[in-house]
Amino acid sequence: MADDSDQEKTEQPTEKRLKESREKGEVPRSRDLTGAAVVLAGVAALMAGGPASFAHAQRIFRIGLGYSRDALFSDTLPARALAEALHEALALFAPVAIATLVAALGAPLIIGGLNFSGKALQPKLERLDPIKGLGRIFAVRGLVELAKALLKVIFIGVLLALLLRHWQGDMLQTGRGPVFGGIALALGLLGQAGLWFGAILAVIGGIDAVYQKYDYTKNLRMSRQEIKDEMKESEGSPEIKSRVRQVQQAQARRRMMQDVPKADVVVVNPTHFAVALRYDDGKSGAPRVLAKGADLLAQQIRTVAGEHRIPLVEAPPLARALYASTEVGREIPAALYVAVAQVLVYVYQLKQAVAHGDAPPVVPNPEVDPDLMGPYRM
Q1: 10 Å Cβ neighbour count for 261?
Q2: How far apart are CA 101 and CA 38, in angstroms?
Q3: Three-class SS of residue 275?
Q4: What contacts 214, CB < 8 A, 6 or more positions away?
């Protein structure tokens, strides 16, 4: 369908899509950036060695060129000279090897982070298909890699040509004069050439890193339909979620209606709202809402309250304020303490009047701040 076409995939990948990609071993990587880091690290380590590197190189030449007459006729000369030369070479290039190893392991962390996936090690037979291989070569990514390779050849070739032309006299000078002076000059030229070479690779690698990050994100883009499907898989379909909410609301209503008989009073409005309150002086510091409802649910609360002889008090502003400000199971806000206290005192006086056969007290009309009624103010 058209929804799955590349033109439709304009949405950024979700966290789930990115996580799945990493699990497959697919992360943005720039080989050019890694190469630049390796070259610069190696050259920096070589140049940081300075006198120590020169001393090791000096001893290597001395081992290879300086022998006594007795040593020339010794059977152990080749092995001994080779062992000494390898020891000096190891001391010379060990810092370079360590620096390049650290750079090779650390450079990929710049844009892709550390990632290990067993799926990436699994063999894929489709990669052996020559037709698909040709398709990958002539795809956009293949053309980009070809363009980068040509740019590297051109830039590096031009750089080497310019350096050879500029250092022509110095390079010839390394073979003339004192040996150790030639060694020092050669190491200096090698370090400068490495720095220029690393700088060119760093520029190319930086551009490539930006492109790889963009290309990685572009390939993972999703269509709106794919995002909707993913949300359905992870969170469930809207129909199921709606049904779950309905069941939860029904269960909450049943529990709420079971608590209505425990109420001390039900404040009504007189038909649209009903709020059941309970005050337990020994357990709570303020009256608590046991149940509340509007319209049909309010009628059900009034019916249950009537069946269990719970007093109904008509106080429309207070009923609306309690309904808007307090959730079921929570204590009423401090701003309604006085109004609710008037109602509870009335209920207590009403019970006393009924018990002694006295005239019923006057129904209170508590004042309530309109702001507490929220959207239900008159």
Answers
A1: 14
A2: 7
A3: strand
A4: none
Strand order in the sheet with 288-294: 288-294, 273-278, 265-268, 312-314
Among 97, 108, 84, residue whose Cα is nearest residue 29 = 108
**Structure tokens that stand for 260 in this block:** 């209505």
CA distance 61 to 258: 98
* CA pair distance 270, 302, nearest whole angstrom: 10
Provide DSSP, 223-274.
Answer: -HHHHHHHHHHHH--HHHHHHHHHHHHHHHHHHHHHHGGG-SEEEE-SSSEE
Closest CA to 68 of 77, 59, 60: 77
What is the mean pLDDT of each successive set of 10 residues along the chain, which is 378 residues long? Answer: 54 78 75 84 78 72 64 65 79 82 81 60 55 56 76 81 76 64 70 80 83 82 78 66 77 86 89 89 80 90 90 90 89 90 90 85 86 77
* Dihedral in degrees, nearest 10, Cα atoms 192, 32, 120, 112: 100
